Structures are given as structure tokens and as C-alpha cells.
Amino acid sequence: MDFVKDLDNRLLFAVPKKGRLYEEVLKLLNGSDIHFNRKSRQDIALSTNLPIALIFLPAADIPKYVAEGNVDMGITGQDMVMENEVQDKISEVLELDFGKCRLCVQTPINGKDQTLESLVGKRVVTSFVSYARKVFEPLDKAAGKKTSITYVSGSVEAACALGLADGIIDLVESGETMRAAGLHDVHTLMTTQSVLVANQKSSHTDLIKKITSRIRGVIAARKYVLCSYNILRENIQKGTAITPGRQGATVSSLESHNGWVAVSAMIESKQKGEIMDKLTEVGATDILVTTFSSCRV
Ligand SMILES: Nc1ncnc2c1ncn2[C@@H]1O[C@H](COP(=O)(O)OP(=O)(O)OP(=O)(O)O)[C@@H](O)[C@H]1O
Ligand SMILES: O=P(O)(O)OC[C@H]1O[C@H](OP(=O)(O)OP(=O)(O)O)[C@H](O)[C@@H]1O
């Protein structure tokens, strides 16, 4: 019971305890300077530097806990928020730029069913039963049929080959799992990614803002790098046209090189090769690209 007392006045932050999102979330917490010691098999860890308790839960259950106010905030997938039907009860505070995939209707490549509509009245297997019911309800009504929707907790792709389903609803990222099971996607129901969600009535509004801002900084730092280079003063405009920066580039004079300036600006990480090529073409030298672990922009 002492443990429960330890949670008093702490913001409760639910994070996935395993699975696809776990490693990414640990990196986010580390980058956000949220320190904690998690003892083996314990699903609650107190932060050592902030009034936060991390609660390790299945990603699928996190939306429910956040919506009910049992925890103040959490990290889960948009698909899980939708499946739990709590999108109106929680605030989606921030998209996290990982866990990106699509929720798709899939059928055997060589089978009879090649559309969503052709599955009406047949057998569908999924981990997303409540969402599936919503999808098939109007179709069933229009066709006067009843689609059978069955829950399985994982390895959904096996259901068609094993004779349990005519089609499945499951997540697709690279498509490898689907193809290996002899399936293809005939309809995309939603695209999804991981999100930071918060209870709308949490009393920890300031701390929620602080955590959100830190996590936003980690995500932004992954998208941007700092590009710095030297260029002749007369070519500054050619350089800054290539690296305008987020709010303008920083330009400073080079003491020992008359007529030269040093420029630094944030650029999108994925464009760094092209930008360095262009800077070289306009006569920039000593072009450096530096990554950073967090930022506030
Ligand atoms: N292949 C994928 N690519 C990207 N994101 C995915 C993928 N599979 C799942 N996700 C995202 O990760 C979330 C959690 O999926 P995961 O399969 O890890 O479930 P889990 O219940 O946490 O773990 P497990 O399946 O091991 O029990 C999903 O709701 C989805 O948002
Ligand atoms: O398109 P892909 O890149 O192959 O990814 C899709 C697979 O990833 C997820 O499952 P996961 O591997 O998390 O395991 P699970 O089947 O136990 O849920 C999802 O349920 C698919 O099976």
C-alpha cells in the first residue's frame, strides 16, 4: 500500500509495456530527460527527477485508462484510441511520428473476395472488433446480411489459411506479414501513428504541458539538423536562399577571413544531402551538419 501512497500528487503517465512501441517510447522518455528506475516485473516506476509515475500497460488498454481518468496521460496508437471508442473523451496532444501503419481489410490473393463489400455476410477475424462492427454494420443493413466478426489477439494473418476467416482486418506497415500469409489489402480503413494523449480533466495541466513540450522537442530534433558553412559575403543571399532557417539564418563574420561569413541554419534532416550539394555549387566551404538530441522551436 505504501506504493500507492508514493503515487500521491504524481502525474500518472501510461506507456506501452512491450510490443512495437516500447523501444521507441523508451527513447522518447530518455530524450525528454524523464528519468526512472524500473524494477524487474514492476509495472509502476517512479520518476527520479519529475513528479511523474510511469505506468507500463498494454498499448491497447491505455486509451481506456486515460479516458476514465485513472491515468493523466499516455502513449498509444490512434488505432487503439479508435478501437476503444474514446476519441471524444481524450485529448490527442501530439502525434509522435512513429508506429506509422494502416489498418486494412485483407483477403487471400487468389480467393473470391476482392473487395470490402464482398465480405459482407461472411467471416472476418480481427483484433479490432468494435471498429470492424462499425464498418460492417451499415453494409450488413444495406445487404440484409450479418457479417460474423471474431476476435483474435494476435497473428491475425493466420486466420484465412487456417479456415477461420474469409478476410481479416489488421495493421499493415511494410506488407511483409500480409504477403507471407498469401493475403493482400483490398481496402484501407485508417492510417495510424503513435500519439500522446491526455485526460481532459487532469489536474496536472502544467506538467502535461511540460512533458508535451519536451517530447515535441525530441521529435523536432529528429527532423532537423544544424547546417553551418562559410561563404563569401557577396554570396550570402545565394546561401541563405538554400538554407533560410526556420526563422532566418544566423550570419557572423569570420575574423581571420576578410570578406567571408559563417552561416548556420536548421535544415530538414532528409534534405541534407541535396542542400550540401547546392551549397557547394554556390561556393560554400567547410559545410558541416550537426545533429542534436532535443530542441525547442
Ligand atoms: N507493423 C507495424 N508498424 C508500425 N506500427 C505498428 C505495427 N504494428 C502495430 N503498430 C502500432 O503499435 C501498436 C501496438 O502494437 P503491438 O502489435 O505492439 O501490440 P501490443 O499489444 O503492444 O504488443 P503484442 O502484439 O506484442 O502483444 C498498434 O496499435 C499500432 O498503433
Ligand atoms: O506490414 P508489416 O511490416 O509486416 O507489419 C504488420 C504486422 O505488424 C503487426 O503485428 P506484430 O508484428 O506487432 O505482431 P502481432 O501479430 O502479434 O500483433 C500487425 O498486426 C501485422 O501482423
Describe this structure in words.
With 297 residues, the protein is of the alpha/beta class. The protein has 3 domains: 2-98 and 194-203, Periplasmic binding protein-like II (D-Maltodextrin-Binding Protein, domain 2), CATH 3.40.190; 101-192, D-Maltodextrin-Binding Protein, domain 2 (3-Layer(aba) Sandwich), CATH 3.40.190; 224-290, Alpha-Beta Plaits, CATH 3.30.70. It contains 9 helices and 15 strands. The protein has helices at 2-6, 22-31, 62-68, 78-83, 129-143, 176-180, 205-223, 236-242, 272-281; strands at 11-16, 44-46, 52-57, 73-77, 90-95, 101-108, 123-126, 148-151, 167-172, 183-192, 194-199, 224-232, 250-253, 260-268, 285-290. The strands form 3 sheets. The chain has a 6-stranded mixed beta sheet. Helix 5 links the parallel strand 7 (123-126) and strand 8. It is globular and about 80 Å long. The model has no long low-confidence stretch (mean pLDDT 95). Bound molecules: adenosine-5'-triphosphate and 1-O-pyrophosphono-5-O-phosphono-alpha-D-ribofuranose (PRP). 1-O-pyrophosphono-5-O-phosphono-alpha-D-ribofuranose is lined by residues 20, 154-157, 170-178.
